[in-house]
Write a sequence for this structure.
C-alpha cells in the first residue's frame, strides 16, 4: 500500500496501518506532500500556515509562548485524534495537544498540533456521582452540567481551563484539603497512544499507563475523554477576607498559625495581591497592595463561620465569605478570562516556622516593590497528603503549603524583567522551599529536565521514564513539560 493510499483510507484502516509501520520509521521532512496527505486523511479538518483560521487556532490562552506548527488538526471525535496521532507518528512530526493553552510550556514549532476544542461532550451520572468529560471540555461546562443536580467537580481557581490538561497535571481543587488532587478522583481515561490506538485506562486495564497519565501530563498520548468522581455538594461557604497593607503582615502571621488547627473541610489560600496601575482597574485600587485570605469550606455556613472566627477577629477591611451555590465558585478567585502573556513560578513548602513566615514577608510582603500580580501561599496537607486508593504519579504529598507566583505582562512590555523578578522571589524563598513542585503549576520557565523532575518523587520519576520509553520511544509527545 502506498502512503497516499493509506492516508486516504482513514479511520480504523489508517490506524491499523500506522500500528504496523510507525515504530522505528525514519522521520520524514515536513513538506507540501505530507501536508496534503494529512488533509486527505483528516477529511479537510486541517489548517496549514497561511490558511484563514490558522493564526486564531494556534494561539493559546497564555500568549507568552507562540506556536507555529506545521499543521493544526481540528478534531471532532476520538477517531479524528487517533488518525491524527497515527499520521503524525508516520511522518515523524512531534505531536502537541491543546485545548485552552493555559498550561503552555514550549512552542509547537514544526509540530502537528491537535486542537481538542471540538470534543465537547459532558455526561453526568447523578446516581453514580460521576462525569464523563471529553477532551476539549472546560471545567465551566462541567460545573454548569453538574450544579443543577447538586454535584461539584474538583475544579481549581478558575473553571476557564481545560479539564484534561488540569487533571493530567494533577489538578489542585479549591476544596482539595477535603477531596485531594483532581487526579486522585479519576476512574478511567481514554488515551490515544503513539500507535494510533484508542485505549481505555483504569486500575485494571493498562495500570502502569493509568498511573503515569494521572500526573504525567501529555507525555504518553492524547486524552480524548476521562471519567471522574464528582463531589456531593450543592453549595460551599466561600469568599475572601481582605486586609490592607497596614495590617497584612500581622494577618499573614495569624493565618499561618491558624492553619495548624483547621479541619480538612476547609481549604484556604493567602494571596499577596498587587493591583496594576492601569485604566482597567478601578481608580481606588490602582497600584494598591492587599492580602486576600480566600476561604472554601465544605459544610454548613454555621460550622464554616466557627472555623474562620479567628481570622474575622483580625478585622478585615472587606469580608465576602458566605454560602454560595457551586456554580458561583469562580467568584472566589475571580481569575481573569482574557488571554495574555503570563509568566509563572512555583514551589512547595514543608512547613512554616516564625522564621519561615518572616522569609516570605521579606520576599513578597507589603514593604517590597514587585511587579503587578499575585503570590499565593496555598494551604495543602489534609486530603492532598493522602494518596488515592489507586496510586498515581503525583508525589511530594508531605508539603504543607504551595507557593504560586503569577504576573500578566501587557503585550507591549517585554516579559524578561518580570520573569527575572519571579526568579529572584524564588531565590529569596529558598530557605523555606523543599525543591519539589506540583506538575499543574509548572510554568513556561520550568521546561528543563531538572525542573520537570522536581515535580515528582525520585522513584516516581524513574518509573515515569520507563513508561515513557515503552510508550513513546521516539519522544514525539514532547511539546510539553517533557519527561526524558
Amino acid at each position: 500500500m502506498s502512503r497516499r493510499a493509506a492516508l486516504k483510507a482513514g479511520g480504523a484502516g489508517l490506524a491499523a496501518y500506522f500500528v504496523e509501520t510507525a515504530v522505528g520509521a525514519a522521520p520524514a521532512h515536513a513538506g507540501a506532500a505530507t501536508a496534503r496527505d494529512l488533509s486527505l486523511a483528516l477529511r479537510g479538518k486541517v489548517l496549514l500556515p497561511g490558511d484563514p483560521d490558522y493564526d486564531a487556532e494556534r494561539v493559546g490562552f497564555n500568549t507568552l509562548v507562540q506556536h507555529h506548527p506545521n499543521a493544526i488538526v481540528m478534531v471532532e471525535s476520538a477517531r479524528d485524534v487517533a488518525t491524527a496521532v497515527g499520521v503524525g507518528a508516520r511522518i515523524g512530526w512531534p505531536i502537541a495537544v491543546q485545548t485552552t493553552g493555559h498550561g503552555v510550556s514550549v512552542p509547537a514549532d514544526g509540530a502537528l498540533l491537535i486542537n481538542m476544542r471540538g470534543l465537547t461532550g459532558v455526561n453526568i451520572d447523578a446516581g453514580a456521582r460521576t462525569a464523563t468529560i471529553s477532551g476539549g471540555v472546560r471545567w465551566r461546562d462541567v460545573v454548569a452540567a453538574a450544579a443543577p443536580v447538586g454535584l461539584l467537580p474538583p475544579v481549581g481557581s478558575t473553571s476557564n481551563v481545560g479539564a484534561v490538561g488540569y487533571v493530567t497535571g494533577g489538578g489542585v481543587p479549591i476544596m482539595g484539603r477535603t477531596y485531594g488532587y483532581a487526579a486522585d478522583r479519576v476512574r478511567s481515561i481514554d488515551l490515544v497512544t503513539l500507535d494510533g490506538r484508542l485505549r481505555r485506562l483504569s486500575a485494571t486495564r493498562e495500570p502502569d499507563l493509568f498511573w503515569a497519565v494521572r500526573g504525567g501530563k501529555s507525555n504518553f498520548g492524547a486524552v480524548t475523554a476521562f471519567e471522574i468522581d464528582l463531589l456531593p455538594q450543592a453549595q460551599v461557604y466561600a469568599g475572601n477576607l481582605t486586609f490592607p497593607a497596614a495590617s497584612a503582615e500581622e494577618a499573614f502571621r495569624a493565618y499561618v498559625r491558624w492553619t495548624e488547627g483547621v479541619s480538612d473541610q476547609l481549604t484556604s489560600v493567602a494571596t499577596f495581591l498587587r493591583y496594576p496601575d492601569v485604566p482597567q482597574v478601578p481608580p481606588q485600587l490602582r497600584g494598591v497592595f492587599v492580602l486576600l485570605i480566600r476561604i472554601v469550606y465544605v459544610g454548613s455556613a454555621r460550622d464554616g463561620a466557627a472555623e474562620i472566627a479567628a481570622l474575622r477577629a483580625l478585622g478585615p477591611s472587606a469580608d465576602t465569605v458566605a454560602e454560595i451555590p457551586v456554580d458561583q465558585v469562580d467568584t472566589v478567585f475571580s481569575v481573569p478570562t482574557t488571554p495574555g502573556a503570563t509568566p509563572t513560578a512555583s514551589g512547595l513548602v514543608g512547613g512554616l516556622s516564625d522564621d519561615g513566615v518572616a522569609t516570605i514577608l521579606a520576599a513578597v510582603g507589603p514593604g517590597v516593590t514587585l511587579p503587578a500580580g499575585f503570590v499565593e501561599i496555598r494551604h495543602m496537607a489534609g486530603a492532598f497528603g493522602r494518596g488515592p486508593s489507586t496510586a498515581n504519579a503525583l508525589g511530594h504529598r508531605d508539603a504543607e503549603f504551595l507557593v504560586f507566583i503569577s504576573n500578566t505582562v501587557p503585550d507591549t512590555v517585554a516579559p524578561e524583567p518580570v520573569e527575572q523578578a519571579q526568579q529572584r522571589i524564588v531565590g529569596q524563598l529558598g530557605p523555606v522551599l523543599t525543591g519539589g513542585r506540583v506538575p499543574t503549576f509548572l510554568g513556561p520557565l520550568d521546561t528543563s529536565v531538572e525542573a520537570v523532575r522536581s515535580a515528582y518523587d525520585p522513584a516516581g520519576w524513574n518509573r515515569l521514564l520507563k513508561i515513557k520509553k515503552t510508550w513513546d520511544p521516539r519522544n514525539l509527545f514532547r511539546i510539553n513539560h517533557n519527561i526524558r
